[in-house]
Each structure stands twice: as C-alpha cells, then as structure tokens.
Design a protein that fits this description.
L-glutamate N-acetyltransferase activity, acting on acetyl-L-ornithine as donor (chains A, B), transferase (chains A, B), five-stranded mixed sheet, 15 strands, L-amino peptidase D-ALA esterase/amidase, 10 helices, multifunctional enzyme (chains A, B), homodimer, about 25% strand, 2 domains, Ubiquitin-like (UB roll), alpha+beta, L-glutamate N-acetyltransferase activity (chains A, B), six-stranded mixed sheet
Amino acid sequence: MSVTAARGFAASGVSAGIKDSGAPDLALVVNRGPSDAAAAVFTSNRVQAAPVRWSRRVTGDGALAAVVLNSGGANACTGPAGEDDARAMAERTARALCVAEQVAVCSTGLIGVRLPMDRVTAGIDTAAAELSEDGGESAAIAIKTTDSVHKTAVASGPGWTVGGMAKGAGMLAPGLATMLVVLTTDADVSAPALDSALREAVRTTFDRVDSDGCMSTNDTVLLLASGASGVRPDPAGFAEAVHGVCLDLALRLVADAEGASKEIEVRVVGAASEPDAVTVGRSIARNNLLKCALHGEDPNWGRVLSAIGTTSAVFDPDRIDVSINGVRVCRDGAAGEPRDKVDLSGREVTVTVDLRSGDASATIWTNDLTAAYVHENSAYSS
Amino acid sequence: MSVTAARGFAASGVSAGIKDSGAPDLALVVNRGPSDAAAAVFTSNRVQAAPVRWSRRVTGDGALAAVVLNSGGANACTGPAGEDDARAMAERTARALCVAEQVAVCSTGLIGVRLPMDRVTAGIDTAAAELSEDGGESAAIAIKTTDSVHKTAVASGPGWTVGGMAKGAGMLAPGLATMLVVLTTDADVSAPALDSALREAVRTTFDRVDSDGCMSTNDTVLLLASGASGVRPDPAGFAEAVHGVCLDLALRLVADAEGASKEIEVRVVGAASEPDAVTVGRSIARNNLLKCALHGEDPNWGRVLSAIGTTSAVFDPDRIDVSINGVRVCRDGAAGEPRDKVDLSGREVTVTVDLRSGDASATIWTNDLTAAYVHENSAYSS
C-alpha cells in the first residue's frame, strides 16, 4: 500500500539505468490534492547532499506537489554541478507532471559521483507516464539500495489514512547509509500541524535508530497531505498514527541492517532527564566492544558500564543496574544474577539500564557488530 | 630497559597464577630514591575500577614508593569487596618491601570478577623477592594481556634518563581494553613539575590514540622520579623526553592493535582551534564505515566528509580538502584527484584533512575495522 494507501496520491517506480544492475532506481510520488500541505525533516549532518539542500529550500513554505527519488547515486559532495543536477531533476519532474516546481528531490547511493543525468531525466518521463494509484509498492522497490526487502507501513484513523515507504539498511550500509522516508496522508491537516506531528514522531523513532553511529549526508523524511478524505483529524490521534508508521518503518530498518545478526533494544530508565537517557542509550548502542560481545552471545555487562561511564549523564557508578534479556546481571554497579542465565541465542536482544537517578527514559535501537558488517563495508567501493 | 633504565629503580615480573595460562601476571616497580616524587593520570571514564580509585587517592600528595600491577583481572565493577582487594594489594606490597603505604595499584583483565587474592598476595611476596635493577623487561612482560609483544621505550638527557613500559593492544581489546603505563626517571624533578610534564605529554599522545572509541575503566599512566642522577634537568628538555617516551609507547599500542591490519594517522590541519582539530580527528577515527573502507583499501573520502559533518567544528563544507596517502582525492568538498592514484596496500595510512578555517592542527591515531577485530571481541568472554 505504501505511499498510495492514502487517497489523493499516485506513485511509480521504474528502471532508469542509473544502477548498472538494471534494477528499479527511480520513483515518483505525486500529491493530487486538493491540499498540498507538507512537512520535512532532514539530516543534521553539516555535509549535506545537493538534493537535501534543494529539498530544504523547496519545502520551506510547507507545500509540495511531488517527490522524485532515485537510488544508484547520492549526488552528495558533487559541488555546484551536483546542485544543478538536483534542480534539474525537480524541474524535469514538474514539467512532466504539469505541476508547480514544488518538487522535493531525494537521492541515495554513491557519494562523490555525479548522476547520469540523461538517464535520470528519461527515467523521470517514464515514471510520470506510469503513475498509478496502485504504484506505492513499485515506488518503495525503486528506492532500495542494499535493502534486502522494501519497507512500507500504514495506519488509519476515522476516515483517514497515513501510509509510507522507507529505504535504508539500518544505517549499516556504506556510502549507501542513507535513510529516505516518504509518508502520505489523505487527512486534511495544515502544514504547521504536519510539521509538529512529523518532528515529534521522528525524534523518538528514526532519530533513535543508531545502527552504527554513522550519519548520512542524504537522510530525508517527508510527509505530504492531500486532504482528499475531507476529514480534519483529531490532532492527538493523527500524531499517534504518524508516530506509529514511523516506528514501524524504523524497526524495519533495524531488522534489515546489513550484516547484522541481532536487533538490540537499549532501554534506559531511571534517568534524571530524557536527554540523559538518550545520551546513555546512544553511548551503549555505539560501543563496538559491546556490539561484538552481543554478537558472540556474551552478556558482557562490564562493557555496558564502561560505555555509560563515558557520558556526563547523572548517575552513581555504584547504583547502576543492568538487565540483559530480563536477567539482572549487574546490580549496584557490580555482578548480579549469574550471567549464564541470560539466553542470547535469539535475534532480539534487550539491554535495560536503570540509572536510578530519576523518572525519565528513552529507547535506542541498534544492531550487533559482525564480520559480515565489516565485509559488506570494506568490499564495497563508493 | 623499560622502567629500570633510569637509576634508582628495581622491578620484577612473576607468574602468580592469576591467569589460567600460567603466563607472567604480576609486576612490581620500586623507587629506591632518594626522591619519591610522582605524578599520575587516570581514565576519565566515570566508571572507575577499584585500583584506579585507590591509586588516585594515594598519588594525591605527589609521592609514590612503589607500584604493583597485575594482569588477568581488572578488579573493576567489583563493589566494596574489590575496593578492599585493591587496598590489600597495596598494603601487602608495602609490607613485603618495607616501604610506606604509598603504593599505586594497577589491574587489567576481566571486568566484574574479583581477583584470586590468595594468589595475588603470594605473588607479591615472590615478586618482592625477585626485584632487580635489570627487572624492567620482566615487569613489562608480566602486564601483557592480549598484547602480542611487550612495550618499552627510553629517552635520555644530559645525565638523566626517562624509561617506561606500557600494556594495551591499541584499546582494541575487549574487557582487556585497559592501557597501563609506568614511566620512571632518575632526574631530580619535583612532583608539580612531573605532573605538568606528564599531563602535557599524555594529552597529545595517549589521549589521541583512539583505536575503537572505547574507554577503559582502568587506564592509568604513572611517572616516578628517583632523583638518583642528582641532576635537575632543563624543564623543556625533560618535558620533551617524557613526551618522546609517551609517543613511542602510544604508537606501539596502535601498531599492536588486536585484529587490525592498518595503522591510520588522521591529521587535521587548517582548523580554527586545536579542540576543533581534535573533535574532527576523533569523529573520523571513530567512523566505522571509513575504518571498514580503509581495511578494504578503498580511499573513501565521502565517508571522511560524512564524519566531519557530524561535528560542530568551524568549516565550510564546500571548502574541505582531503588527502589519503598524499593524494588529494577531495578538493573543495567534491571529487579531486583520481582515487585510483591512492596506494593503500601498505600497513600505514595517513588521512589529512584541511578544514581551511585557521592555523590549528591535531593528529589522532587509530586502526582499521576488521573481521578479526569482531572475532577477537565476540569470541572473548569477560
């Protein structure tokens, strides 16, 4: 269902020949209205790809007519020529669709290499001709890079729907580290309300997926509202639906992380503040030694404590508790329950840290570190 | 030569049976004076092992009679009982040597497990009986954990000597991530002068080795001065010698990093400030994607830019230059010289980043990320 689950949208995905493999590599998502309200969140990396710079500009007024997306090339670190290419993609899309030039551009693939613009522009024309209200799946497939599966999600409220697609292999992938997400809804929601719902949802979902600590130059999350349902949703219910779709897609990214053998949920509770909980969670999620240990099915709580100790969060080292898959292996900062009680044979791992310093909490999702990760990311040349 | 290169010191290393393998695991370094001046730098991890807490207390007044070190157990995250064990090691050493209880304690090995104190105390007695002015090598050998070689260095000035030993496998090792360093000198230097020379040397050497971003609970660097040469050295010359020995030992740690196939020097120049240069250097050195790429001999400058972009350092993304092994593969934030000109077949790699925002610079040393690293750190159970 993807981006065409909500009424008022058409989409398509085609093989433009950007990828040598001939796999689908160009997608369009068009908002047929009546509303063109939109919101966007971009990577906080200060090195930003040309399509991010372009899309940030074009979404500034809270309206989008369409989105053009390509895999097979990130158009990042490509200088002024790359800026021209991103603009040309938007212009070509607007012309092919006979819409205003409010077209966002999303690219993913190799960094530092220009796109084959002749193929891209021909592909845009083909994709425009193939637009369909059933094209959501095709679009989701065309934005895959190292993703093993395409990723879509849908949620509904009374009379309205939120749907979406995502690409990204848990941010474990190489120059392909990019996460691209397009959400659509037929609810009648103003741009400022879209913006607030999207930002809050991203903050506690995509922003808390930290597969390998590496941040892309191209990450983009877009939310387009057609208003085609004619329903103005309850703000809380709408925010919940957007959050639900984002969480669903985020967990699909983690589940599809390249080279990973475990999905790890790091839950930090008892923190003095939410920022403290997030900082501690990230520090644990980024600790290579711990990620290797969990890969080896070793409930190595000492590495959890080491990671916590590098943060400036509020805690007393002698009062930290750590549970791994429900077994409290560390109590008061020292050995607790016997570690051989921990069953790490499954794919899902939960590490729970109680800082015993307050009531705030946060969850970070990550993966283990494997030889396959190293192989994928060293064999790949970008 | 190690810690007994300087006059006034004796050392020993013995097999106390802490390690199941029977390899040497306990070392003593004794300052026979006439001076007992000393300085110390400890891990900034807020989760600190019991021996670190003890040694911090005992070195507070700038004097040390001796150091007792063990491998085979870190005595970290061991609660109040571990504190008692660290103190007992110091007391036993003082008694065996008939010295004041100004004895620093350094431990390395598994986290969260108590030391076999009966073996440790018996080992201290044996080590005390075997003290020798030629014992520096034995001591350096006894503090090895996953180190493939023991590490020593020496520098000299007019009439005085600085020598030292280190253990640590580039901080790439697992619960064994600890770096322990003991430096000795026969120069006649006051405790405050030792402290200032040591802090400055550590700041630009050991603190800039960032093999895997993981920081130990046990890291300790000690500098003991016997004054046995009777020479008061020129402060600048002495500081330079201490820096030289620290740099030599730090590079030996990088060269011996577990599972690594490359030694990577990240040089950041043209920074607006030294902290900016260090921040950018660390961000690059900790980027798993880049470390995989360099392992695969791929001069992936896009990943360098991605890493720089996550920092708050002063730079213009469109004015960054990156050279890899001397080839400027990125100029003005976009593709520069052809990447196939870069020869990455050797073990040594230099990544030079010019931020073109000022005159400050810094160097960070790291390693590549390899399947062997993952294997070592997932197979090992701590």
